[in-house]
Structure formats: C-alpha cells, structure tokens
Design brief:
Blueprint: H1 6-12, H2 28-33, E1 40-42, E2 45-47, E3 53-56, H3 59-62, H4 71-83, H5 95-107, E4 112-118, H6 121-138, E5 146-150, H7 159-164, H8 168-171, E6 181-184, H9 190-193, H10 209-217, E7 222-227, H11 243-254, E8 257-261, H12 275-279, E9 285-288, E10 300-305, H13 306-312, H14 332-347, H15 350-366, E11 374-380, E12 383-388, H16 397-409, E13 412-413, E14 415-417, E15 420-423, H17 431-447
Parallel strand pairs: 3-13, 5-6, 5-7, 7-8, 8-9
Antiparallel strand pairs: 1-2, 2-3, 4-10, 9-10, 11-12, 12-15, 14-15
This protein binds pyridoxal-5'-phosphate (PLP).
Pyridoxal-5'-phosphate binds at residues 120-122, 125, 154-156, 228, 232-233, 261, 263-264, 289, 300.
Length: 449
C-alpha cells in the first residue's frame, strides 16, 4: 500500500485508536485487548474514564509522594506556564532554578551541596556516571574508568544505566553495553531473610565482595560504585543491616566514589529526605527524580559533594567546565513544580509521616503471610513487596494476573516485577487506607490462587 501523506493520515485516524502508541515496558498486545485507562486523579485515587475510583497503592510509579493533583503544586505549574514557558539552561538561566537547587541541597546530608538537573532518573544516572569519569580525569587519575554496579540493580534505561544495572531482560538485547563494568552480588537471599520487617540481619558481608572485585582490577582503575540503597525495581530488596556502611568504608579505603541511586528512595519514601540519612552514610553523589516534583513534571538530577564540584572549577573562566547537559535541564515548569512540592513535603511533614507510619504499614502488609502462594513479604519505610509462587508453566503470569485483577476488579494499582507485587503509596496515605490496601491485596492474592 502506498504511504499516505501526513495530512491524509491525520484526517483519517480515529481519535481513540490504540494502535499508534507503542507503550513502554508494557506487553502492548495484552494491554490493547483490555486497556487499563486512567483519566484523572485526586489525592489517593485514580479515576477511570468511566469514573471508577482506583486506590493508588503505588504513587503512580513511586512518583506522587505528595498525593495526586495537589492544589499548591497544580497552581505553581499553572502560574509558571503563564510567566515563563522556557529559558535555555546553557549560558542562561531563570532565578527559580537556583532556588530549587539550594532547597534540594539543604535536604541532602553532609556536603552534598551542588545539584545538576536532568529530566529523568535514567538521565540522572548517566549524568552521575559521566561526572564520576570526568572527575577522575580532571583530578589527574584518568586511569580510574571502571564502574561497578550490582546484580538485580535498576538504574534506568540509558546505556550507562543498563550497563551498571543488573537486570538480564533489560541488558540482553542491547549488545555489549559499556566496557569495563563489573557487578556486586545482589543482597537478597530468601533462605536467610524471608518475612523480614525492615533491614534484614543477614547479608552485610556481601559488601566485602567489593574487595574481591577491586583486587581483580586494582583500585587505580576503579572510578565508582553505584547502588540503590534499597533495590526497588527487581522486587524491593532492603539493604542488610550494616551493608551500606561497609560499602562506604571499602570505597573510602580504595578512594572509589560511591553513588547512591535514590530515584525511588529520595523524598521521604523511607522516612527521611534521602535513604543516605536513614543509613548514616554519605555517598559522593545522589541521583534523584520522581518525588522531586511528586511526579507532576519530569525532572531528575544529581547531587554531588563539594569536592567533586570544586574539582571541575578551574581553567579559563569562559570555558565550559563539564561538557554535559540537556535542553530541558531545570525546565521552568519542573522547577516551579519542584519548589511547590518541597513546600508541601515541609509544611505537611510528609517524610516524618512516612517514618511514623512505617510500623503500621509493616504490620498490615506482613498480615498477608499465610495467604495462598505467598513466599515472602518485605517492608521498609512506606514500601512493601509480596512474592508469589509462579504458576508451573508461566513465570510472571500470576503477578501479571494479580495486577490486572487488581485494577479491573478490586480497584487498586499494583506494580509488578517477576512474581513480586510492589506497593509504594503516596506518603499522604491514612491508617484506614493502609488497612484498605491490605484488604484489597488479600482479595487479589486469593483471586489468583
Ligand atoms: C533506582 C532507579 N534509578 C533510575 C530509574 C529510572 O528513572 P526514569 O524512569 O525516570 O528514567 C528508576 C526508575 O524506576 C529507578 O528506580
């Protein structure tokens, strides 16, 4: 068939045809047979186009920590759109970007006091990895080029992120990835950790694997280690007690930079502004995204320690110090949304709220122990995960069905990865709604028995 002109295509396409949109990380054919459409949202709920309320147990995708469509955030975005639509972030700037950077730096521990803006978590990760390599270059140790990630780690979908990441399915189709990358072992072991509330006792020794990797390559070739303080996307794996401190100590011993990918743990998810604070560990860089604008406008970034930033600030002053950035770094709408979001977090003390609710949440979710096919339950901060047994012939199908039934029949959103159901509600959730999440989840689990 000859190609239609663009004009012909626009004038003939049906308005609600599902064909053209190739959906990300979604089984497209299954979705389009029975779509899960979300038309609007308010506070703890999504609403379908027909008006059915769905309890959002996942804060979208770990994003809307302040709850949905909060008036002060919506107003800030509207006002900003009227005042300044766009300003170039290269060579020019708008004043609020500096304000937001200062506010984020204030929340970060220690001397993590400079902020580089991106538009997503994936870009934040690739920015941090490039910053680490460039840091060693400007510091006269250009041989430090190796990057160390962790098995079962998720660091977004850029080439850097999938290279240091440890998810086979996200790596195997994309060639040889970055060279010179190695991986720590994952920290999860069901035999030693099943049904733990909070950080498991077993597993701190797994940090010592870094010594083995460093011994193999020599410290003079290693630039940075990147880990999620709590691995999220491969099924919620809380760090064993003492693990992150041990990792920090080994990095210090060998002069290796430590990067915490806090794209999901940042902005209150674990009851502190960043997980770094919860664990009393100061990494050299923190990546963030999602919760910074409560998911309203895309934004991410990297917070760095002072010595990293300062290492770049030399040479002729008219020359760019770090050849990196995005057209939409510090976009005015994202910046306005970010400032309004941080105001809501502060005024409503949402990080403290998450901390206070942690035991209530843990109790409710662990109450599902003993339900059919439940192999493990993990909780940390306002995060929960339930592992289900696979159906004999189809790994991942039971969880997929749980997510489908959750939406269509039990009015709740669930995130799935493999056979894990993950829960990460907005930090505004009430105690009654925590009970509602557990009740709905119980019904969902029974419905896929
Ligand atoms: C730890 C971590 N890093 C990076 C990313 C990627 O973020 P984005 O999807 O905004 O690119 C995610 C997304 O879930 C994440 O969980």
């Amino acid at each position: 068939m000859p190609r239609q002109s663009n004009l012909a295509r626009t004038t003939t396409s049906a308005p609600n045809d599902l064909e053209a949109f190739w959906m990300p990380f979604t089984p497209n054919r299954a979705f389009k047979k029975r779509p899960r459409m979300i038309a609007r949202a308010k506070d703890m709920h999504y609403y379908t186009p027909e008006g059915r309320a769905i309890l959002d147990a996942t804060a979208g995708m770990w994003c809307t920590n302040a709850g949905h469509n909060r008036d002060p955030i919506v107003a800030a975005i509207k006002d900003q759109a009227e005042e300044l639509d766009y300003a170039p972030p290269f060579q020019f700037a708008h004043p609020k970007s500096f304000h937001l950077a200062s506010r984020i730096a204030e929340l970060a521990p220690g001397d993590l006091d400079h902020v580089f803006f991106t538009n997503s978590g994936s870009e934040a990760v690739d920015t941090a990895l490039k910053m680490a390599l460039a840091y060693w270059n400007v510091s006269g140790q250009g041989s430090r080029t190796r990057l160390i990630g962790r098995e079962r780690g998720y660091h977004g979908v850029g080439f850097g992120g999938i290279s240091v990441g440890g998810i086979v399915g996200n790596r195997k189709m994309f060639g040889t990835l970055l060279a010179g990358v190695d991986h720590l072992p994952a920290t999860y072991n069901r035999e030693h950790q099943a049904f733990t509330k909070g950080e498991p006792e077993w597993g701190a020794h797994l940090a010592d694997e870094l010594e083995r990797i460093v011994a193999l390559h020599d410290a003079s070739t290693v630039a940075a280690v990147i880990v999620e303080p709590m691995a999220g996307s491969t099924g919620v794996l809380p760090p064993p007690k003492g693990y992150l401190k041990r990792l920090r100590a080994i990095c210090d011993k060998h002069g290796i930079l430590l990067i915490f990918d806090e794209v999901i743990t940042g902005f209150g998810r674990l009851g502190t502004a960043f997980a770094a604070e919860r664990y009393g560990v100061i990494p050299d860089m923190i990546t963030f995204a999602k919760g910074v604008t409560s998911g309203t406008v895309p934004m991410g970034g990297v917070i760095t320690r002072k010595h990293i930033h300062d290492a770049f600030m030399k040479g002729p002053e008219h020359v760019v110090e770090f050849a990196h950035g995005y057209t939409y770094s510090a976009h005015p709408l994202a910046v306005a949304a970010g400032i309004a979001t941080l105001d809501v977090y502060r005024e409503e003390e949402l990080f403290e709220r998450a901390k206070k609710l942690e035991p209530v949440w843990a109790e409710a979710i662990h109450g599902l122990k003993g339900e059919p096919n439940v192999l493990d339950i993990r909780t940390l901060g306002l995060v929960g995960a339930v592992d289900l047994a696979s159906k004999p012939d189809a790994v991942g199908k039971r969880a997929y069905e749980a997510m489908e039934k959750g939406f269509h029949e039990h009015d709740i959103t669930l995130r799935i990865t493999g056979e894990t159901l993950a829960l990460t509600p907005p930090l505004t959730i009430s105690e009654a709604q925590i009970g509602e999440v557990a009740d709905k989840l119980r019904a969902v689990i029974r419905s896929v028995a």
